[in-house]
Structure formats: C-alpha cells, structure tokens
Amino acid sequence: MMNKLNLLVLILFCCSISACAQKEFKLKATALSDTIVMGKSVKVRLSLEGIESDIFKGREKTDKDVLDGFFGDYQQNHDFRTFVTVSPNSLGKNSLGPYKIKLLGKEFTSNKVSVEVIEQPEEIFKIEMPKEGKVGEQIKIKIIGNSNGSFTALVKENEIFKVHGSSISTSVTDGVYSCVSEYTLILKKKGAFEFDRSLFKNLPDQIKLESVKFEVK
Questions:
Q1: Is a pLDDT exceeding 80 seen at residue 199?
Q2: Do 47 and 83 touch, CB atoms closer than 8 A?
C-alpha cells in the first residue's frame, strides 16, 4: 500500500513538473545558520521554487511517513523543499554547494551558500558546594552553567571522598543547553582541599570551572 502511495506521489509530482514546463523555476539553497562551532553541522534547505501543485496540501499528519522523500517533507506556497545536513571542517568561511538535482531529464543547480565556522568558545561553569564538612559526612555538590551541547561528567573517586550518587538534568532554550550536574559525596579525609576540574572526567575541554576551596574536619 505504501509503495502505491509513493508511486502516486511521484506521478503527481512529475505531472506538476510537466505542467510547469513553460514557466521558470529554480533550485535555491539556504543555510539555516550563518555561523556554527567547529565540529557541529548545519542544515541547508533546498527549495525548488515556482512549482504549482496541490500534492501535499491538506494531507493528514499520519501520511508523513508515506510522503517523506525528496521534496516530500514540506511544501510552502508553490515551493517544494527538503534539507541536507553538512559538517564543514575548516575554520573561517566555508562555501557550500552548489547542489544539483535531475528531474525528467532536466538538471537544476542551486546557488552556493556561505557558513562561518568558529572555534569552540570557552564556557564558564560554577561549582556549588559546602565550604566545610566532617569525615563521614555526606555532602552534595553541583556544577551549573550553559553550554552549546549536553555532556555527562563524572567525579573521580580519590582519598578525599567517595562518590555515593549522581544525577544530571539538561534543558534547551533557543539552542542553548542549561546543565545541572549534582553529585553526592562521602568525605573520607581531614584537610584543606580545592575542588576543580581535575577532579572530573568526561568534562568537555571548553568548559572552565571556577574552583572552590573546602575543608574537611
């Protein structure tokens, strides 16, 4: 059944192309972001403009899996559009494209798009914890901050404390990750110590932790 529906969509799409043969239409590329961090990817929207068709208008949401394909994901006005994901690997301005498609023996070539790739900026996180405690006492510490991605950092066990538990929560707003990592520690050794990033593992390089001094009595 799905194959028949896909074939029907393809036939209708090709018919719409034929009907527009006397009109001008073009393949347009648009980057969804002008700037990205090194190692991240960017989506490029490809729109075939000027095609008049009602193929996808008023379709049921349940048809999405059936109709997904090249130009099957969206129609806006008379433009069919889809997306490609690109991961530039050079710092500075990167030229992406042009992209090409062939339909009914005709080749359509898009414009090029420019994306700026920048170094990963430093991200400042802070440590929240008691300034003192006693041997055998259970304390909680948190590292809090905003990042451009999620991560899972673990506390290294050592002669000062034992890790009793941990939890991580992340929320995303406008592409910014608000991260809170909470750890439960049991203090083992008396003395004055400093809690800094050296006590963590799997902590991304761009994250800078403001160290905290504490005393175990």
A1: yes
A2: no
pLDDT digit string (tens) for 21-30? 555 778 899 9
pLDDT digits 0-9 by tens, 78-136: 556 788 899 998 999 999 999 988 877 788 899 999 999 988 888 999 999 999 999 99
Shared fold status for 25-118 and 123-216? yes
**Which of the 8 DSSP states describes residue 34?**
S
When the candidates are 3.30.300, 1.10.287, 2.160.10, 2.60.40, the CATH number that belongs to 123-216 is: 2.60.40
- Please state, in angstroms and rounded to a whole number, the distance separating the CA atoms of residues 136 and 189: 9
Nearest to 191 by CA among 134, 148, 136: 134
Cut 0.90: pTM above it: no
Instruction: Break the chain into its structural domains and give their ranges.
Output: 25-118, 123-216
- The per-residue pLDDT for range 36-48, each reduced to its tens digit, is 888 888 999 888 8
β-strands 35-37, 113-118 pairing:
parallel
Contacts from 40-44 at CB under 8 Å and sequence distance 24+? 40/87, 40/148, 41/85, 41/86, 41/87, 42/85, 42/86, 42/87, 42/88, 42/96, 42/115, 43/83, 43/84, 43/85, 43/86, 44/83, 44/84, 44/85, 44/86, 44/96, 44/97, 44/99, 44/113
**Does the 25-118 domain belong in CATH 3.20.20?**
no
